[in-house]
From TrEMBL:
Cofactor(s) of this protein: Cu(2+)
One GO molecular-function entry: catechol oxidase activity
This protein's UniProt keywords: Copper, Metal-binding, Oxidoreductase
Family to which this protein belongs: Belongs to the tyrosinase family.
Organism: Flagellimonas meridianipacifica
Pfam families per the UniProt record, alphabetical: PPO1_DWL (PF12142), Tyrosinase (PF00264)
Domain Tyrosinase copper-binding: 241-252
InterPro entries, alphabetized: Di-copper_centre_dom_sf, Polyphenol_oxidase_cen, TAT_signal, Tyrosinase/Hemocyanin, Tyrosinase_Cu-bd
Name of the protein this chain belongs to: Polyphenol oxidase-like protein
Length: 465
């Protein structure tokens, strides 16, 4: 099922791909500092040369001393767990920490499907970085990120066999598999000016309420977790695959890149968010908590990113030629857009000065899959006597588990970016259908369960959704 290629070949291939069109984004670094909060007593403020600098792991040679130290530190954490599985500073305890705050947990602890996702995962990575630093007594040891906008294969460092602490046997992809381009539409997230569109809405407070993830979580974040498969495609075990820290390292970086992308991209000012306490463990495995307002500046947490550059292909409006095409099949979920319940006028008005905008796609009484479900979403409508297909994004919908891991079958939302042509079709009531076309993933079959959707509507914001 998996083949191991020569590391050098794969490395060169990765480099070749990444050098195409590599220019920097219009990053206004000043807008980052304007979002920063004061250093807190809890976080040790370091001067800039004692900061851990997180870099793209795909840029390192296999024998780089920094990678060797990183692996040595991981081996120490793994060894601790072999000696004592409950050692709070070990690999096992750290992996379980993620499970404590995911779908198996009570609402109050849930950090997915909502606006806690990016601050909590930043804290979780900090917690790992602290443990690694302490293990080898190197306070500048840094985690890495896998910039999948530049390198579409899982980097070579993560392959080999069990003797490599970065390897994980459960992945469903191999070193030869490339992430499909449409899995990485960072641009749609960047153009989301409202944090809730990018990063998610407030957490639900009681049973039965609908959840609304941010676009970043439901698109590239979920898509890549699920594409890798194995432990990475689960809430409870993803923290046990070392690629988790490289994938989330890039998501954490994209959160900062989103803030730098436009002065309009600002963080929530709600007390409910800023004052929220999030929990993890420190470098010794001792429980700690941070308020979100103290997690907004990475330097307060002892690290910075080497750069915030991304492959511009994924940041600019998606090229027409790169968009996936609709290939109709019996596995597609097709449902009419309900114009009665959609905010058609409000959406059309949004397009007066815009070519594209973000909307919420809402569907009721959805029968959700028991497995993560990756789909390309299309709108189809009549235009000049022909049926048109318009691609709007690729998303991975996760089964939503209630307390006691009961599968919820309530409404589901997706935040999507649509182009003017769709708004015009809506305005002209052109017999619109929404299509979820499941995406085949390496070494897996499309799930047999066909997604069932009812009463699909489009809303401008959540309050009305
Ligand atoms: Cu998570």
């Amino acid at each position: 099922m998996k083949t191991n290629k020569s590391p050098r070949r794969d490395f060169l291939k990765t480099m070749g791909w990444s050098t195409i069109g590599l220019s920097t984004l219009p990053l206004a670094t000043s807008s980052i500092s304007s979002c920063q909060t004061k250093p807190t007593e809890k976080a040790q403020t370091k001067n800039s040369n004692s900061l851990a600098v997180r870099k793209n792991i795909a840029d390192f040679a296999p024998d780089d001393p920094e990678i060797k130290l990183f692996k040595d530190a991981l081996n120490i954490l793994k060894k601790r767990s072999e000696v004592s599985p409950l050692d709070p500073s070990g690999w096992q305890a750290h992996g379980m920490l993620h499970a404590t705050f995911c779908a198996t947990s009570i609402y109050a602890n849930q950090v997915h499907y909502n606006w806690y996702v990016w601050p909590w995962h930043r804290l979780y990575l900090w917690s790992m970085e602290q443990k690694l630093q302490k293990a080898v007594n190197e306070p500048t040891l840094a985690l890495h990120y896998w910039d999948w906008t530049k390198a579409p294969n899982i980097p070579d460092h993560y392959w080999g066999n069990e003797s490599n602490p970065l390897f994980n046997v459960t992945r469903m992809v191999g070193p030869e598999n490339e992430l499909p381009k449409d899995f990485i539409n960072v641009g749609a997230g960047f153009r989301a000016e409202h944090y809730k569109t990018f990063g998610g809405y407030p957490a639900i407070k009681k049973r039965g309420e609908a959840q609304l993830d941010g676009l970043a979580e439901q698109s590239f974040h979920n898509n890549i977790h699920n594409w890798i498969g194995g432990q990475m495609a689960t809430f409870t075990e993803s923290g046990f695959d070392p690629i988790f820290y490289a994938h989330h390292g890039n998501c954490d970086r994209i959160w900062d890149a989103w803030r730098a992308y436009s002065p309009k991209n600002t963080l929530p000012e709600d007390e409910e968010w800023l004052e929220k306490r999030l929990f993890a463990t420190d470098g010794n495995g001792t429980p700690v908590d941070f308020k979100i307002k103290d997690l907004l500046n990475t330097e307060d947490l002892g690290y910075r990113f080497n750069d915030l550059d991304l492959n511009p292909t994924y940041c600019n409006p998606y090229e027409e030629a790169d968009k996936p095409e609709r290939n109709a099949s019996a596995q597609d979920c097709v449902a009419p857009l309900n114009l009665e319940t959609s905010q058609t006028d409000a959406i059309y008005k949004e397009f007066i000065n815009k070519e594209r905008t973000h909307v919420i796609l809402h569907f009721e009484r959805a029968q959700l899959p028991y497995q993560p479900y990756c789909a390309r979403v299309f709108f189809e409508y009549d235009k000049e006597g022909e049926r048109q297909s318009k691609y709007t994004g690729t998303f991975t919908i996760l089964p939503i588990l209630d307390l006691d891991s009961v599968l919820l079958q309530n409404g589901v939302h997706l935040q999507i970016e649509i182009e003017k042509e769709i708004a015009e079709a809506i305005e002209q009531e052109k017999n619109i259908e929404v299509i979820f076309q499941p995406v085949p993933l390496p070494n897996r079959n499309i799930p047999d369960e066909i997604l069932k959707l009812e009463n699909i509507s489009l809303k401008l914001n959540y309050e009305d959704a």
